[in-house]
């Protein structure tokens, strides 16, 4: 068994790995990476620019100082060998080298170095924080590099040297004094490359600034990514709450961005699913209800027949009722099966070129005996050629349903049912149609919009118990008609007037 600590640890690692895999974390990491790159580039650019400026300044200073000192030595030489007012040359004997005088050049600072060194490395004069060994080392570097005038040498002042200059990097300019001057030797001028420590301060500032920006980016990026991902979490939570029995929930994100669009699409899909589920539920409830009625009738009829001894005619009547209800159930089950197959896509159409008029004529001939039985006149009207592409079996079933309905509901006593076909070449697309017209009782207008719905019956009173003639009614016939018409790319409609009759029309695209 795992210890409590072990359980806590595994929960923590699970949470951590979920965080690392999350889009929020990755978004934050990406923004952090990009800002780091930008900051690094920016800092390097600023730092190198500043370093170049500082270097340029110190080179300028060292050159200025060397010019000032050259003037000092030149002046002292000229003064020593130049003639006086009376034209006599005064003191042409070699005198002592002029002392390096910082006060002659105001740009000299306490950290600057000036020295006069012999080529052998002996320091004859020196001003500034450098030790003799520093100067000797600088001279050595200069001599090794080929002793051209004005060469710049970088070198560090030994940490032992005095004051703030200790350990600093210096620029040295070394220049030999001209041979004909009284002062001889190599002039060494040095100035710190970064006397005020501006570069380390800049590096520190850049580092701290970048760190602060990265911290803000980290926190801000995490917060922003969280905000962006919040709608996704809302969608996820809503989807988790939706169960297969309750599809009424909606996300209702209410934003107009891409995520809002996604949520709307999701809501629309839920709406479609819900109505499909509702239809399914309604269909099942209707089907059970429809089956329960004939089963109840059969049960009542058998109970009645068996509760005592009866005459043969009464048994005969009971059996007839049972047979009728059985027919109803058989028809209902067949229709249900047909619709279920159609809905499930298990009833593919086998399309072939057909003439709708031929089919109409075939139905009229086939249903003639039924019409005779009902004492209804079944005739064919105009039947011009109507070429279509369709499934013969399905189209026969469609026409049979329509004509059977007309015969069933037209009533008796000199009623007529007419089947006719025609073409509407001018329509887009060109259509062919078949109409089944009866002069029966008609259908009240309030029923017309629902007539093609499953299990819908306009006249519910005409139930099984009252009227045996309509005992095979299932309320699915017209739904099947519409399904077949739509599956062929067409449609079905009805017009009716109470007391005058009804016209059912199916249109199909012409071949
Ligand atoms: P049913 O099995 O009840 O005939 P249908 O879907 O074929 O189912 O028809 C639905 C309803 O439409 C019928 O119950 C009937 O009320 C009405 N109906 C259909 N055809 C006609 C018609 N020719 N005349 C009057 N009513 C009709």
Describe this structure in words.
Strand 9 and strand 10 form a beta hairpin. Helix content is 51%, strand content 15%. The protein is α+β, with helices and mostly antiparallel strands. It has 3 domains: 152 residues; 87 residues, Helix Hairpins (Orthogonal Bundle); 162 residues, Heat Shock Protein 90 (2-Layer Sandwich). The structure holds adenosine-5'-diphosphate.
Category from helices, strands and their pairing: alpha+beta
Give the bound compounds. Answer: adenosine-5'-diphosphate
- List low-confidence stretches: 79-84, 87-96, 461-471
Count of all domains: 3
According to CATH, the fold-level topology of the largest domain is Heat Shock Protein 90
Mean pLDDT: 83
**Which CATH top level class of the largest domain fits?**
Alpha Beta
Topology:
Blueprint: H1 4-21, H2 23-81, E1 113-117, E2 123-127, H3 132-144, E3 151-156, E4 169-176, E5 186-192, H4 198-241, H5 258-306, H6 312-343, E6 352-355, H7 356-366, H8 368-373, E7 376-380, E8 387-390, H9 392-410, E9 415-424, E10 431-438, H10 477-487, E11 491-497, E12 501-509
Parallel strand pairs: 7-9
Antiparallel strand pairs: 1-2, 1-5, 3-4, 4-5, 6-8, 9-10, 10-12, 11-12
Helix pairs in contact: 2-4, 5-6, 6-10, 7-9, 9-10
């Amino acid at each position: 068994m795992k210890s409590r600590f072990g359980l806590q640890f595994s929960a923590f690692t699970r949470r951590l790995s979920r965080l690392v895999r999350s889009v929020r974390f990755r978004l934050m990491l990406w923004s952090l990476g990009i800002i780091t790159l930008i900051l690094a580039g920016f800092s390097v650019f600023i730092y190198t620019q500043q370093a170049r400026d500082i270097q340029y300044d110190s080179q300028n200073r060292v050159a200025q100082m060397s010019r000032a000192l050259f003037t000092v030595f030149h002046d002292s030489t000229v003064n020593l060998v130049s003639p006086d007012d009376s034209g006599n040359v005064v003191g042409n004997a070699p005198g002592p080298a002029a002392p390096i005088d910082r006060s002659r050049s105001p740009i000299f600072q306490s950290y600057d170095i000036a020295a006069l060194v012999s080529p052998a490395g002996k320091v004859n004069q020196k001003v500034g924080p450098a030790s003799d060994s520093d100067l000797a080392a600088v001279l050595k570097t200069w001599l090794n590099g080929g002793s051209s005038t004005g060469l710049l040498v970088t070198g560090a002042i030994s940490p032992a040297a005095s004051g703030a200059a200790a350990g600093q990097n210096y620029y040295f300019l070394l220049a030999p004094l001209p041979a004909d001057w009284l002062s001889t030797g190599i002039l060494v001028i040095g100035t710190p490359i970064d006397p005020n420590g501006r570069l380390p301060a800049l590096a520190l500032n850049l580092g701290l600034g970048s760190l602060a920006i990265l911290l803000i980016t980290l926190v801000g990026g995490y917060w922003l990514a969280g905000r962006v991902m919040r709608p996704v979490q809302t969608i996820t939570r809503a989807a988790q709450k939706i169960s297969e029995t309750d599809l009424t929930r909606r996300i209702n994100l209410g934003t107009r961005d891409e995520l809002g669009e996604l949520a709307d699409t999701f809501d629309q899909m839920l709406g479609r699913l819900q109505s499909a589920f509702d239809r399914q539920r309604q269909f099942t409830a209707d089907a059970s209800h429809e089956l329960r009625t004939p089963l109840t009738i059969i049960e009542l009829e058998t109970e009645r027949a068996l509760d005592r001894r009866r005459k043969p005619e009464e048994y005969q009547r009971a059996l007839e009722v049972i047979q009728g209800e059985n027919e109803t159930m058989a028809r209902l089950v067949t229709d249900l099966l047909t619709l279920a197959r159609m809905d499930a896509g298990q009833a593919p159409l086998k399309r072939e070129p057909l003439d709708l008029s031929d089919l109409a004529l075939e139905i009229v001939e086939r249903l003639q005996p039924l019409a005779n039985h009902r004492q209804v006149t079944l005739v064919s009207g105009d039947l011009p050629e109507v070429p279509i592409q369709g499934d013969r079996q399905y189209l026969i079933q469609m026409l049979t349903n329509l004509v059977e309905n007309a015969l069933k509901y037209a009533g008796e006593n000199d009623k007529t049912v007419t089947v006719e076909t025609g073409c509407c070449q001018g329509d887009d697309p060109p259509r062919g149609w078949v109409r089944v017209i009866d002069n029966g009782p008609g259908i009240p207008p309030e029923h017309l919009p629902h007539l093609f719905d499953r299990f819908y019956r306009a006249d519910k009173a005409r139930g099984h118990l009252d009227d045996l003639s309509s005992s095979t009614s299932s309320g699915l016939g017209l739904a099947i008609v519409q399904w077949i018409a739509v599956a062929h790319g067409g449609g079905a409609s009805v017009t009716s007037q109470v007391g005058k009759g009804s016209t059912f029309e199916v249109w199909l695209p012409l071949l």
